[in-house]
Amino acid sequence: MGSLDTHPMSFSASPYDKAAFEPLNPEDVRAYLHKAVDFISDYYTTVESMPVLPNVKPGYLQDELSASPPTHSASFDVTMKELRTSVVPGMMHRASPNFFAFFPSTNSAAAIAGDLIASAMNTVGFTWQASPAATQMEVLALDWLTQLLRLPTTFMNHTSTSHGTGGGVILGTTSEAMLVTLVAARDAALRRSGSVGLSHMTRLVVYAADQTHSTFFKACHLAGFDPANIRSIPTGPETNYGLNPTKLLEVMQADVDVGLVPTYVCATVGTTSSNAVDPVGAIANIATMFNAWVHVDAAYAGSTCICPEFRHHLDGIEHVDSISMSPHKWLLTCLDCTCLYVRDAHRLSDSLETNPEYLKNDATESGEVTDLKDMQVGVGRRFRGLKIWMVMRTYGTAKLQEHIRSDVAMAKMFLDFVRADNRFEVVVPRNFALVCFRIKPSGCMTEEDADEANRQLMEKLNKTGKVYLAHTMVGDKFILQFAVGSSLQEERHVKSAWDLIEKTTSTIME
Ligand SMILES: Cc1ncc(COP(=O)(O)O)c(C=O)c1O
């Protein structure tokens, strides 16, 4: 008989013993995260002095870091050192207060804490049963947000405290919100046509203004709509680049006249190029005549509607089928957090529900709970409700409104600077915190010369590393976008950016 040490059932230490490798050792978790939190806090202290745009060449990281994975362990300090020396210099710092490009991706201590805790718990709340608190927190946070946005109760979930008929879900991106609602609208239209399968697909038509985010056209493609049936309706300065309801009516009627089936209209509140606002109520009235689904994409500007003075942009929302907005853009909640609301939650689950044997459970069978997997593409899902709840719980509505208002006030200040300098023009009215402006043609300068001057201005500004501005084309003109809203931004950053813009313009105009 062998000794205990050599017995196959012996519990003595072996190279494969769990004790030799404990990736979730609580003391290591504490030590690593303290280092990570110190890094984050230092990052926010110093990011202002870092170049907003990195100055690195494609492939630079492969040259700096080992090309093959290490076989042996290293101290976590080595990993953090490589993060500091190789990764940080290659980042575009959206957290910098000198970042004025695109739309801001706002953030806050409460959101980061929520995201960190959600990552630590690693919840996968596909069904209510998989984590009741995760589902209920998401429902609660979404219902709180409907109240901040003063959305009709029809968008709220049916719970013990709210008697809504709708439903909400937190997705990763607006693109996903578009995709799932397009699929639901597609299936509903096919069912109405009595079609089995996709045989009537070629008759279904979708509509949006030409200013709609390009991701809408991608989502239509993914949802199987015929590219020939995707109507991109031209807009112009007469509607400040918003969708003209009369044109929409004409296009929809023309489609019906040839036997096509209007299925879905996407209206945007705050377009990406120029912050145009499509008239939600008028569009909903027209779409209803044709039984088409209306989705409102308020990815960026939706957050402003927590302030009463901006809420009119959603007038008529009670008549639409769905709306999505992204607190990861402007409501101090880190990526990813897109809130999708539908007036009738069943219209999503009718298309997206799955019910495999291994996920069957009493709670689902009871019909009393929401299984959020049935309102999204995937099955697994992050505990995103925690961070948005922590933001609303910690800061309160008044502070969140203050945050939106101060960004808008800074954008107005910038607008006044631009208006006071007659070398510039403001191209479209400012609706939120985005100012679209450009050097205007003067003297013998043509429109093309002005475009070139603006291009040069942007390049020179961005090369300094002191600011980052993006551009767009509106009505064939090259436009600079100045988006206020990065969470660390203060008036002084806007003033020094303007100072730099003025001086750089002088060097170009000379
Ligand atoms: C109005 C609007 N819609 C949609 C999108 C695409 O959003 P996502 O990247 O979340 O899919 C954006 C991105 O900036 C946007 O501004």
TrEMBL record:
Belongs to the group II decarboxylase family. Keywords: Decarboxylase, Lyase, Pyridoxal phosphate. It comes from Triticum aestivum. One of its GO terms (molecular function) is carboxy-lyase activity. This is Aromatic-L-amino-acid decarboxylase. The modification N6-(pyridoxal phosphate)lysine is found at residue 329. It comes from the Eukaryota. Gene3D superfamilies: Aspartate Aminotransferase, domain 1, dopa decarboxylase, N-terminal domain, Type I PLP-dependent aspartate aminotransferase-like (Major domain). One of its GO terms (biological process) is amino acid metabolic process. GO terms for cellular component: cytoplasm. Its cofactor is pyridoxal 5'-phosphate.
